[in-house]
Amino acid sequence: MEKPAETHYPIHDLLRQRWSPRAFSDRAVSHDVLCSLMEAARWAPSSSNEQPWHFLIATKETAVEYDRLLSCLNDSNQVWARLAPVLAISIAHTVFADGGETNRHAFHDVGLCVENLVIEATSVELMVHQMAGFSPDKVRELFELPADCEAVAAMAIGYPGDSSLLPDRLRQREGSPRSRKPITDFVFTGRWGHPSPIVTNPIGKETR
Amino acid sequence: MEKPAETHYPIHDLLRQRWSPRAFSDRAVSHDVLCSLMEAARWAPSSSNEQPWHFLIATKETAVEYDRLLSCLNDSNQVWARLAPVLAISIAHTVFADGGETNRHAFHDVGLCVENLVIEATSVELMVHQMAGFSPDKVRELFELPADCEAVAAMAIGYPGDSSLLPDRLRQREGSPRSRKPITDFVFTGRWGHPSPIVTNPIGKETR
Lengths: 208, 208
Prior knowledge:
Two copies of one chain form a homodimer.
Chain A: H1 13-17, H2 31-42, E1 53-59, H3 63-70, H4 75-81, E2 86-93, H5 106-123, E3 127-131, H6 136-143, E4 149-158, H7 168-175, E5 187-188, H8 197-200
Antiparallel strand pairs in A: 1-2, 2-4, 3-4
């Protein structure tokens, strides 16, 4: 199922096609494709090139490991995520490796990294659905996370599946329109809350 | 100047080409192109579709606004960033709009959003260089940020320029090789620190 963003301005097709479905096919994802996803994550930018990201990952070929990840998800996410052939959890290293100072960009840089992964996935027709609905404490306990690392988000990865297999309520959500605030709500110039002339006058020409 | 990632596994060309230069051309960026960058940011995923992102942005066509943003950067960044035709600062709304609970994913979701912006930029041959070296406190003061918002990162946006115009030390950095940890360092299965068989055996086939 495709659900391209209804954009007001043109954007690259990979960004327009990306969305977060709940219906996954049981088609397996090969290791080499998953390596390309991680390679894409690897080349993200980060503050001081700290690369504060880690991933816990498992496929259904290793059922014990897959189930351990699945057990960290909220029940409401397990319902659909258990159909995805790959589960992962992103982890932030919250202090700098050199010196131990807090890295205020750790979560942010994990975000940069994961979006690279998501876009690489989109480019090979995989889908990624991230979840906040999981237990970071259970991840810490089950995987013995170091004190200076923190679980950020869970994610289901796989090829698109048949939404008719989802429970009613989720099937309806799967088909509902996507929505976002307009860019005039969040792009400001000069002072907070003042929509930028760049976005209120998009055909404006530079004068220099 | 191009500086594609030396990847161990194939990744999409947009992700391979993206890097963070310091040499920017003085060629202006049109409003409609900047709107596409913000539109790409707009369609990023976020926890509960909260969209906790804002941007402060200015181009050189509005010198007062540009200089106000520039003044928030550390001196070491002003040296090169002042050549870029566009400056911006990403801002996180750190509590949920509905209820005021802390949004632990605010910085992370700004990261997802900004990487969408960066990849859109790459697709139209723009470059983005993010900086942690700026004063969040000065941003708060100059732009009267609400208490529940926090400046995340500064960024310079523009077309590639001539690195010979950079000061010696920065020109050398511009030409130096890019580096990243191997994926076996950050992709684990089963327990923390245990490299995943997915990345240690990338030609492994799924057995189900």
